[in-house]
Please model this.
Amino acid sequence: MLFLTFVLGIILNALGYIPPGNINLTVVQLTINRGFKQALYFIAAFGFVEVLFTFVMMRFVQWLSLTIELDNIIDVVMIFLFLILGSITWRSRKQLPKDDYSKKDSIKYGMLLGLLNPMQVPYWLFVGTYLISHEWIDIGYLSLSIFSVGAGIGAALALYGFALFAGYVKEKFDLSSYIINKSIAILFFSLSAYHICKVIYVHYLK
Model:
C-alpha cells in the first residue's frame, strides 16, 4: 500500500508539471542560459522543497478548499508572478550567457520558486480532495510523507525532462539565448494575460 502511495505521488505530480508554467519554463530558460548542470542544481533544490510543499498542502487540503476567495487570490498572485518573471526575462534577453555560474545561486533559485509555487495549489486542492475522499491515500503522517517524497521525485523527473528537451532544442536548432529568452518572456506575459482575462470574466462578465 505504501509503495503504491509512493508511485501515485510520482505519477500525479509529474503530470502536474507538464502544462506550461513558471517552473518548467524557468528550467528551460536555465538550461539554455546557464547550462544543463545548473538546471540540475535548480531541479534538485526545487524537488526537495516540493516534498515539504506537497506534505503541507495535503495536510490542509480540506481546510484550504473552504477558504474564501482562494481561487481569486491565486489568480492575482499568478498575474504579478508571471509579470515579474516575464519582465526579468525580457530585460535579460540581450545579455550574453556567462561561462561560469554559481551553484549556490541555482540552488537558492530552486528553493525560492519551490516556496513561491501558487500554480500547484489549485492542482493539489482538486487532486488531494479526490484522493482523500476516495481513500486512495491515508492522511496519516507516514502515508503523506511517502506520498510527498514521491511527489518531489515526480516533479524532479518532469523538470528533468524539460531540461533534456531544452538542451536538445538548443543543440539541434542552434537557437540563440536572445530568441529563447524573448520567447519565454512572451509566454510569461501571455500566462499573465490569461489570468487577467480570467479575473475579469469571473468578476465582471460572468
Q: What stands out?
A: The mean pLDDT is 82. The longest helix spans residues 141-173.
